[in-house]
């Protein structure tokens, strides 16, 4: 393929070592394994800061977000060491303030730093929070977090370097209602209220499986947290917490991604470690589209097999929503599969205002997708009448053609890969580093499923992030 320069929207050229060449047209076939959920592991690591004794997490994936949180914890005196099989231990015996410049090395790399507020306020009376990163899929403000912290007694000062947070009179429980069931804000309140004085009653809380698992972690540490009906969580503050030992719930986002990859490429993929209970809503949609799956519940090596049974896939209409609705992080990979379904599918994205931009690339590959700023679903959402292109109509099936693709965000990037694998011809995918944030051993898994992918950006079989037994958690490049 002739070399063509590819650049970001701002004109800067993409690094050649960050690209992969994908030869499409081969169905994915085989087995891969998922480990602990990205969206729980990183929060459980932060929770370890609250304990007076060391914590152990099992089955931790070697992904960039784990590396970023490890780096931040290390800066605050928490000794993070990796053992075999994804085990990490976190020793918070010597928690200390970190240097602002050193913290800022991690600015813009993940959303997790905002969750350090409560634990650092309890341990040190002060927290410095760098600018956040994470996927650019909307504005992603943190007003709910800061309002809740202030209501519990914190003082927040915005500085040119980041946020300076103190709690001069300590933190106390209170009654809080979230304007929207935000996952991060719910976690913020949990991690702050567990050691605040008195009782916190949180209304309109998010109740995603990862949040319930974080509550399980905190309960192991000595917290008293009750989930009531109607999104109400009651937290009784306790004076001290101890370390935990925890095996996280498996990553239901990665599982769904590979399931969609099987569907879009007319393949057959078994995801070992996947758990049905956390995927009920996804599995219903997968079946409605025409995908087949089989759950293997065996205690040691269970998982779910996903496959395309042949014939046409069926169009569907769906809205993303908070749990137990169809999760927004499942949406992008599913849309690629829907380009192969016969008829008109409708997707109404109600969680993020800007999570459909990745479809422009699919259109350049031959998909027929029209975006609308209207709410094309049964429920008007926060983004209606506000000029956000947050509804999509997908008309299929479309024959996809190879293209040059620039990864926009984590799930959008995975979706671009699926599209390239399903397409005719050879695509170049740029910005593959972003994938490491949430998919462990991505290159090795693609290879295990028979994908023809090569190039300087192909991660090594041990993955780009290392959890070396006995050593610290660190980046391998
Ligand atoms: C690391 C992690 O766990 N990330 C997940 C988490 O992100 P995250 O916790 O950032 O997502 P939230 O649930 O907080 O965001 C949901 C919506 O609430 C809005 N909002 C949120 C906080 C706030 O202070 N103000 C505000 O307006 C956001 O802009 C968004 O429109 O939940 C999302 C929704 O399931 C998932 O897509 C992400 O994978
Ligand atoms: C949106 C996601 O993650 P984050 O909140 O870490 O950006 C995701 O995992 O799809």
Automatic annotation (TrEMBL):
<protein>
    <recommendedName>
        <fullName>UDP-N-acetylglucosamine 1-carboxyvinyltransferase</fullName>
        <ecNumber>2.5.1.7</ecNumber>
    </recommendedName>
</protein>
<keyword id="KW-0132">Cell division</keyword>
<feature type="binding site">
    <location>
        <position position="329"/>
    </location>
    <ligand>
        <name>UDP-N-acetyl-alpha-D-glucosamine</name>
    </ligand>
</feature>
<feature type="active site" description="Proton donor">
    <location>
        <position position="135"/>
    </location>
</feature>
<keyword id="KW-0963">Cytoplasm</keyword>
<dbReference type="GO" id="GO:0071555">
    <property type="term" value="P:cell wall organization"/>
</dbReference>
<dbReference type="InterPro" id="IPR036968">
    <property type="entry name" value="Enolpyruvate_Tfrase_sf"/>
</dbReference>
<dbReference type="GO" id="GO:0009252">
    <property type="term" value="P:peptidoglycan biosynthetic process"/>
</dbReference>
<keyword id="KW-0131">Cell cycle</keyword>
<comment type="pathway">
    <text>Cell wall biogenesis; peptidoglycan biosynthesis.</text>
</comment>
<feature type="binding site">
    <location>
        <position position="351"/>
    </location>
    <ligand>
        <name>UDP-N-acetyl-alpha-D-glucosamine</name>
    </ligand>
</feature>
<keyword id="KW-0133">Cell shape</keyword>
<dbReference type="InterPro" id="IPR001986">
    <property type="entry name" value="Enolpyruvate_Tfrase_dom"/>
</dbReference>
<keyword id="KW-0670">Pyruvate</keyword>
<feature type="binding site">
    <location>
        <position position="111"/>
    </location>
    <ligand>
        <name>UDP-N-acetyl-alpha-D-glucosamine</name>
    </ligand>
</feature>
<feature type="domain" description="Enolpyruvate transferase">
    <location>
        <begin position="22"/>
        <end position="446"/>
    </location>
</feature>
<keyword id="KW-0808">Transferase</keyword>
<dbReference type="GO" id="GO:0051301">
    <property type="term" value="P:cell division"/>
</dbReference>
<dbReference type="GO" id="GO:0019277">
    <property type="term" value="P:UDP-N-acetylgalactosamine biosynthetic process"/>
</dbReference>
<dbReference type="InterPro" id="IPR005750">
    <property type="entry name" value="UDP_GlcNAc_COvinyl_MurA"/>
</dbReference>
<comment type="function">
    <text>Cell wall formation. Adds enolpyruvyl to UDP-N-acetylglucosamine.</text>
</comment>
<keyword id="KW-0961">Cell wall biogenesis/degradation</keyword>
<dbReference type="GO" id="GO:0008760">
    <property type="term" value="F:UDP-N-acetylglucosamine 1-carboxyvinyltransferase activity"/>
</dbReference>
<keyword id="KW-0573">Peptidoglycan synthesis</keyword>
<feature type="binding site">
    <location>
        <begin position="38"/>
        <end position="39"/>
    </location>
    <ligand>
        <name>phosphoenolpyruvate</name>
    </ligand>
</feature>
<dbReference type="InterPro" id="IPR013792">
    <property type="entry name" value="RNA3'P_cycl/enolpyr_Trfase_a/b"/>
</dbReference>
<dbReference type="GO" id="GO:0005737">
    <property type="term" value="C:cytoplasm"/>
</dbReference>
<dbReference type="GO" id="GO:0008360">
    <property type="term" value="P:regulation of cell shape"/>
</dbReference>
<comment type="similarity">
    <text>Belongs to the EPSP synthase family. MurA subfamily.</text>
</comment>
<feature type="region of interest" description="Disordered">
    <location>
        <begin position="457"/>
        <end position="477"/>
    </location>
</feature>
<feature type="modified residue" description="2-(S-cysteinyl)pyruvic acid O-phosphothioketal">
    <location>
        <position position="135"/>
    </location>
</feature>
<dbReference type="InterPro" id="IPR050068">
    <property type="entry name" value="MurA_subfamily"/>
</dbReference>
<dbReference type="Pfam" id="PF00275">
    <property type="entry name" value="EPSP_synthase"/>
</dbReference>
């Amino acid at each position: 393929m002739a070399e063509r320069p590819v650049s970001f929207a701002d004109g800067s050229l993409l690094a050649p070592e960050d690209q992969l060449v994908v030869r499409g047209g081969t169905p994915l076939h085989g087995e891969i394994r998922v480990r602990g959920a990205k969206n729980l592991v990183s929060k459980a690591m932060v929770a370890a800061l609250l304990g007076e004794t060391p914590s152990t997490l099992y089955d931790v994936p070697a992904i960039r977000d784990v590396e970023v949180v490890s780096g931040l914890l290390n800066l605050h005196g928490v000794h993070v060491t990796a053992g075999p099989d994804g085990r990490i231990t976190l020793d918070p015996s010597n928690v200390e303030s970190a240097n602002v410049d050193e913290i800022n090395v991690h600015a813009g790399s993940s959303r997790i730093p905002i969750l350090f507020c409560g634990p650092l306020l309890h341990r040190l009376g002060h927290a410095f929070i760098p600018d956040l990163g994470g996927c650019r899929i909307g504005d992603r403000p943190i007003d709910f977090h800061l309002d809740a912290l202030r209501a519990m007694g914190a003082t927040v000062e915005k500085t040119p370097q980041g946020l300076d947070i103190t709690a001069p009179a300590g933190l106390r429980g209170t009654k809080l209602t979230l304007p929207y069931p935000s996952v991060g804000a719910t976690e913020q309140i949990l991690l702050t209220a567990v050691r605040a004085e008195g009782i916190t009653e949180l209304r309109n809380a998010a109740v995603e499986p990862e949040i319930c698992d974080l509550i399980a972690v905190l309960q192991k540490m000595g917290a008293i947290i009750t989930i009531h009906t109607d999104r109400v969580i009651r937290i009784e503050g306790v004076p001290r917490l101890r370390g935990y030992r925890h095996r996280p719930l498996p990553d239901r986002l990665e599982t769904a991604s590979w399931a969609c990859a099987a569907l879009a490429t007319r393949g057959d993929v078994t995801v070992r470690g996947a758990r049905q209970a956390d995927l009920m809503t996804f599995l219903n949609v997968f079946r409605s589209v025409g995908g087949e799956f089989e759950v293997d519940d065996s205690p040691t090596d269970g998982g779910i097999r996903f496959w395309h049974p042949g014939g046409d896939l069926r169009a569907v209409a769906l809205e993303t929503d908070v749990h137990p609705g169809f999760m927004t992080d499942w949406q992008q990979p599913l849309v690629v599969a829907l380009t192969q379904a016969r008829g008109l599918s409708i997707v109404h994205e109600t969680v993020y205002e800007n999570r459909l931009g990745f479809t422009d690339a699919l259109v350049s590959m031959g998909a027929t997708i029209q975006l609308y700023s209207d709410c094309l679903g049964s429920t008007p959402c926060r983004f209606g009448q506000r000029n956000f292109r947050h509804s999509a109509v997908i008309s299929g099936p479309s024959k996809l053609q190879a293209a040059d693709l620039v990864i926009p965000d984590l799930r959008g990037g995975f979706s671009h890969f699926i599209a390239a694998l399903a397409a005719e011809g050879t695509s170049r995918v740029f910005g593959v580093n972003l994938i490491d944030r949430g998919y462990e051993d991505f290159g090795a898994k693609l290879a295990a499923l028979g994908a023809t992918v090569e190039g300087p950006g192909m991660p090594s079989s041990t993955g780009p992030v290392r959890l070396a037994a006995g050593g610290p958690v660190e980046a391998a490049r």
